[in-house]
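Subject: Sanity check before I submit

Could someone independently write out the structure tokens for this chain? I want to compare against mine line by line before I put it in a report. The sequence has 429 residues.
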Amino acid sequence: MYEKKVSEIEQLIDDQNRWRDKCINLIASENVLSHRARSRAGSDFAHRYAEGHPGERYYRGTAYIDEIENKLKANLKVLFQCAHTEVRSISGTNANEAVFSHFVKPNDVVMVNSTPAGGHISHHREGAIGKFTRNIIDIPVTPDGYHMDVDKTIYLIEKARPSVIVLGKSLFLFPEPIAEIGEVCKACKVRIIYDAAHVLGLIAGKHFQRPLKEGAFLMTASTHKTYFGSQRGIILSNMDEDDWRKIDRGAFPGSSSNHHLDTLAQMSIATFEIMEFGEQYAEDTIKNAQVLATELDRLGFDVQGKEFGYTQTHQVAVNMNPFHGGEKISRLLEHNDIILNMNMLPHEPLRSHAHPEGIRIGVQEMTRVGMGKQAMGRIAELIKECVIDKKEVKEEVNRFRSKYRKVKYSYDAYAEKPSKPTKSKKSKK
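---
Independent answer below. Compare away.
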């Protein structure tokens, strides 16, 4: 009765696969799995439950996922040099909620990066932290809008006495000054929570700041941006055991029950790839972002952060106000198969969120399919031809993208080797 409807859904899936495979994908919060990790989607683990910890489950039949989960946690402890890892959160926001639920009490004062200054929605009144307190103060920023004003922040910490300060951003160009505020936070008993969702892969690759070493109380993250794993969340910390037990309860049963075992297995594979290839990938990603920013600036765009070298992450921010704003330009570029998102910039009022002036570009996915500095220059040219020269560039985008099909920084080269054909034995008559 509904078979035709099922076929329609299957067709939409196929259409999506074909379309995005020919696009220049520049969404800063996305990445692609390797073929080897992706091929493990939909295993029997997709059908199963494993509440609790390995060896202490509430369900039977979990021996194999127990081993996978234990290996993943051990590898994350090595990769991030931390004592504790929580891998049962199914998204970065889910991980944030698990943390906020135990370290933000009703009426607590918390300090966060404002939405225009790059703060994530889960850090605000309408998001996860808003479920636990409404006393939310924006972290002061310097005139450029992309850096914390350390002196003003220290003054606010001493006066407002927040219980928590949340660092890390969604529009994230430069490191956070954790060490600079660490002493006053310690003196005022303020916990620094660092949301590393966008920069987790850069941290793992040792080409960005190391929040836990610099003084963060704990670190949350999603695992599918610069960390090219499946879509999940993690919590990492060196806190004492009593505090860690609160995180444990926040993750289960606080914010999750079963934790999507099939994607956990994929993340385990991706983590080995990060351990093997992550340093080179992080270095190449940051260099690509800096090249793209430089080329866009040269071609006449108002690239943000120029006086600081544009960016130290995978992201580039551009003010598109001269071209009628980020919302219009993001739609124009999508029509030409260049996919990115509109984004508020620090100088904009909060009411601008639906029609912001800026766009946010992320190079991490295109870096992973093998694009380098020369390709970044070509992307800048295509954006210029589309936005400034008002040309239709879709066909050229598709032709250019066709040269970059295989996922690099992975074990795919080994996984895709054809097996040797077996010689058939001729039957004897």
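---
OP: Matches mine. For the report I'm noting this point. The chain has two domains: 24-32+278-406, 37-270.
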